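Handout, section 4.2: multi-component inputs.
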Amino acid sequence: MTSRLIDESLFDGESGRGDGERPGAGDPPRLVGARCSACGTVVFPRQDSCPRCADGAMSVRVLPASGRVWSWTLQAFPPKPPYRTPPGGHRAYHVGYVDLGEVLVEARLAVPRAEIRIGLPVRLTTVTAYQDEDGTEVLTFAFAPDRDGGR
Amino acid sequence: MRRTDDVYVVGCGMHPFGRDESVTGMDMAERAVRGALADAGVAWEDVGYASGGSDVSGKPDTLVGRLGLTGVPFVNVQNGCATGASTVLTVANALRAGEASIGLAVGFDKHERGAFHVSASRYGLGDWYAETGMMLTTQFFALKTRRYLYEHGISERALAMVAVRAFRNGSNHPLAWRRKPLTEQEVLDSAEVSPPLTQYMFCSPGQGAAALVLALGDRAFDLCERPVRLASLALRTRRFGSFEVFSPWLPPGPHRSPSVDAAEAVFRTAGLRPADVQVAQLQDTDSGSELIHLAETGLCGHGEQEELLACGDTDPAGRIPVNTDGGCLAGGEPVGASGLRQFHEVVRQLQGRAPGVQVPGAPRVGFTHVYGAPGISACSVLTV
Ligand SMILES: [Zn+2]
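Output:
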């Protein structure tokens, strides 16, 4: 089965996907934002100007792959389009903000209800968002429990 | 104390909130305007300046076709949840600038059922954001509430108490939509939408209209036995670091809301403190939002909300009565009308003629607060 990333601009093209290797195999591709050279603000996704100051130049910033759950909730009911229902239909999913230190990133959380809590160590992964008409799996970023984290 | 450049509310009118398929947004607006004019004892021809707002239900200035083609200047406003406050600001500034001595502000809306529809590109976001199921206002309110409860040691029961008070106040109010009181357990046991928020902790898009007649200085006292002074009104947009809806990222914090800026500005201008407020309206899109806004506006300290609610301090007979008409939770959220509903309720309370439960002890200082996407807030202080 083939797969693709939902939006290449969110990810670092160098990480996690050598030639011929499908994304999701091995380490997941890292998220990429931008950092302001003047005030140090880190944004995601990347953008060309700083939302905080007028002085800086924005440069590409590969974001940390692990962090902690900062807040979380559940999406109980199926959202309206343009939400794309995953293969097999809507199942309630968790979303939240993950504290990566320099920035909080909003993401799907692949964490079971029994485990989910503010402060939980999590690590970057990918989940299937939906399928293209030709059956290609469309992957988006998510965070899952970091079994080695919490130190 | 009369000052010639002060602006007063001298009349108010409202079309009941809720669902009524037999009327359009414009029908409701016309009824609210005629109600406000009658309440003020003036004719449409006396209105020298007007402003109206609606999110989805038409061009407000076309109301002149129904009310009379007097040539009156009429400014349309579309400013999200701050639409109502923006119409009042527009009219008040025009009166102070000498454009007219009597003005009218009107807001109305009639929304479709179900969650508000949003598009990613309209908010400058990529399609992925909506396609992956992250572009929902309900999630935002839940995420903000979850973090707030955690940081300030507040239990989920406090969220239910907010809803219970809203529906109790609504049940006593002839203009409210939801008139059935609910118990804490019923609120907590209602359908899980996005925890910690359940179905009955959220307001629904609805319909309604409200209007105010404003007058300048001595003219106000000629028209009205008990004019309500617009002591201050401030509108603010977000600054860096506020935690807003549809944010794929946030800075590490602290996260300061435009509500803090708007509230500080109105209290400073009015020369009053939050502790002076005797009747308040706070944006309660959901129970969590009201909890947060109680502290952001300075009406209580962060983390004090649960005790305040448990003691009944926010009830009509309490120390700081909040949303005495049931707010958005009981009234629904017609975006263009909600802000003016708040003015309507506070004005009537200060005049001692509340449509629902009257705050006892002749309150003299009122407060209104709205907050909306993407990071706007408007507050006002009203006095008699
Ligand atoms: Zn900067």
